[in-house]
């Protein structure tokens, strides 16, 4: 499978990094709270664009004190205080540790620390943070999504499914989480249930080739070559780069000798 679409850790990592992270950004209206906070966040963002990190940091710090669940404020603060491009997890985690000492009840700080730990494979530590979040925010689907990703990375597939199942029950609007849930089901051999789950993801995001590719892999593992080829063709028609991924994907191994597969991926 292509790394970002794998029925393993990689698909979950990319979904968390791209889709889960995007939800934090796209959901800023909900996270921002009052109009005054929204205005402050915009002002801080303007300072960031101008390169005035000190003033941006001051505003984000005030917001963190007022709204302990505001993820955008923590994200902005981190961007303003990183000494280099935010690719070094050690620096980011250290900054968040220091910030957590100042604001121990701030769940957004804990979330981003868990998020970064998850991205870089510090799974046991991330899981500890996530359990803290769930205790305080038992109805936040995002926390269970992150928990599912960590458990999947730890090869605890059934437990990962339970986390994703909880996430979809709390927020059934996330196509990527239905896909993650399907992946965990497939890893435990529950292919029919996996197809049902990923179908819901496709209904929510019908133009996303990732879900078609994932469903092709599930069908291939199930032994349904006809449907696997049909879905693979859909994925490739949207994004031709899937050709190369498919040729190397172990989950499509049952199709390697198939002439239609060879023609489709050449």
Give a description of the structure.
The two termini are 16 Å apart. Residues 1-33 have low confidence and may be disordered. This protein has helices at 9-26, 28-32, 35-50, 53-66, 71-81, 89-102, 107-119, 123-136, 141-153, 157-170, 175-187, 191-204, 209-222, 225-238, 242-248, 259-265. Helix 14 (225-238) runs parallel beside helix 16 (259-265). The protein has 2 domains: 3-197, Serine Threonine Protein Phosphatase 5, Tetratricopeptide repeat, CATH 1.25.40; 207-266, no CATH class. The protein contains 16 helices and no strands. The longest helix is centred in the N-terminal third of the chain and has 18 residues, at 9-26. With 266 residues, the protein is an all-alpha fold.
Helix content range:
over 70%
For the largest beta-sheet, the strand count, sense and barrel status come to: none
CATH architecture of the largest domain: Alpha Horseshoe
Silhouette: elongated
How many independent structural domains? 2
Number of helices: 16
Name the structural class: mainly alpha
Question: CATH superfamily membership of the largest domain, which one?
Answer: Tetratricopeptide repeat domain
Poorly predicted ranges: 1-33
| Relative strand content | under 5%
Q: How many β strands by DSSP?
A: 0
Report the CATH C-level class of the largest domain.
Mainly Alpha
Q: What labels would you give this structure?
A:
mainly alpha; Serine Threonine Protein Phosphatase 5, Tetratricopeptide repeat; 266 residues; 16 helices; 2 domains; disordered N terminus
Give a topology summary:
Elements: H1 9-26, H2 28-32, H3 35-50, H4 53-66, H5 71-81, H6 89-102, H7 107-119, H8 123-136, H9 141-153, H10 157-170, H11 175-187, H12 191-204, H13 209-222, H14 225-238, H15 242-248, H16 259-265
Helix pairs in contact: 1-9, 1-11, 3-4, 3-5, 4-5, 5-7, 6-7, 7-8, 7-9, 8-9, 9-10, 9-11, 10-11, 11-12, 11-13, 12-13, 13-14, 14-16
